Amino acid sequence: MDKVLVTNASFAKYSTRAQNILEGYGLEIIRPKQPVTEEDLLSNLDDVVAIITGLEPISKNIINSAPRLKVIVKHGIGVDNIDLDAAKEKGVIVANSPGTNREAVADLVFGLMLSLARNISKSDSQVRAGQWPKVFGQSVYGKTLGIIGLGAIGKSMVKRARGFDMKVIAFDNYWDKEYADANGVIYSDIEGILKEADFVSLHIPLTDETKNLISMNQLNMMKPTAYLINASRGGVVDEEALCKALSEGRIAGAGLDVFSSEPPINSPLLGLENVILTPHMGGFTDGALGLTSEFVAQVVIDVLEGKEIKSRII
User: b/e for 181-217, b at 16 or more Cβ within 10 A?
Assistant: First the structure.
């Protein structure tokens, strides 16, 4: 029987529909024990035609050790944990699941914005410690939101920003002028966003071109009252530079759901008060995970049936 190797624990966690899609097609689902190691994966590759993965590394060794592998599908967006060169060399399709977690991630990003601006996290700790401080924050309503990466999640941020009467400026390599004009989004280059925005939100993949896109030069362009929020990929921000900027008050604060190394053990970010850190949980809601699971299950079926895959990366 053809098998699907599922490496991430969140697949079909909140709904059986995705599992039913695969099993209804006659596929057997293999789930190694958590946390998954490369050894676990290598020992489960017999008859595997598809791999559904989350953040677990899918190395060249794994790809080359699966003789019948046809497709690797990311249960999420970023595919930097998959050896794309090895997949391409072997003729294995790689796809992701864009848009399925867009609302969940946008919810978290907006929550980080509000918490940073109003000192919610710090104030909670102070009250629990028996303090009753006067806490002054910044308004979010009416401020300027800068979005770097106006894809599915960026556009969901626009919807939320409109409810707060925010001015929205954005950059994207593939500018959707029709959408921008219809939703009052103003085009700007990255430098213009950094200089003008009160809140800068990153929604871009990690590539050779975007690695450390936000470093000291870029942080120095931001207003000292501005906040940086990153729920895309940790590697797009130079964390050493960010620590320095936060420590020296060059920007007001940051909200991070992603890190260059996860978890960020011993990171100097852990000792700073003007940063809120969350454990890469942007897409982790029951609704978002259910949609993502169903989407990736259908991608597997479509590949096996020879259909065109719109979310195909290679």
Answer: eebebebbebeebbebbbbbbbbbbbeeebebbbbee
What's the pLDDT at 302?
98
> Which residues are CB-contacts of 13 (< 8 A; sequence separation ≥ 6)?
289, 293
Whether 233 is catalytic = yes
* Residues 217-256: tens digit of each pLDDT: 999 999 999 999 999 999 999 999 999 999 999 999 999 9
Dihedral-angle region of residue 3 (phi above 0 means left; psi in -120 to 50 means alpha; beta otherwise): beta
Q: Of 209, 248, 262, 273, which residue is the catalytic one?
A: 262
257 neighbors 108 (Cβ within 8 angstroms): yes
Q: Which of 75, 102, 250, 280 is catalytic?
A: 280
**pLDDT at res. 84:** 97
Distance of CA 52 to the CA centre of its chain: 17
203 is catalytic: no
Give pLDDT tens digits for 109-153: 999 999 999 999 999 999 999 999 999 999 999 999 999 999 999
Please give the pLDDT value at position 216: 98
CA-closest candidate to residue 78, choices 211, 183, 199, 244: 211
Half-sphere exposure of 89 (CA within 13 A, CB side): 9
Q: Which residues of the chain have pLDDT under 50?
A: none
Which residue in 102, 203, 233, 250 is the catalytic one? 233
The per-residue pLDDT for 143 is 98
Concerning whether 273 is annotated as a catalytic residue, the answer is: no
- Sign of the Cα torsion 130, 132, 138, 142 reads positive
Claim: this prediction has a pTM higher than 0.70: yes
Residues written for the chain: 314
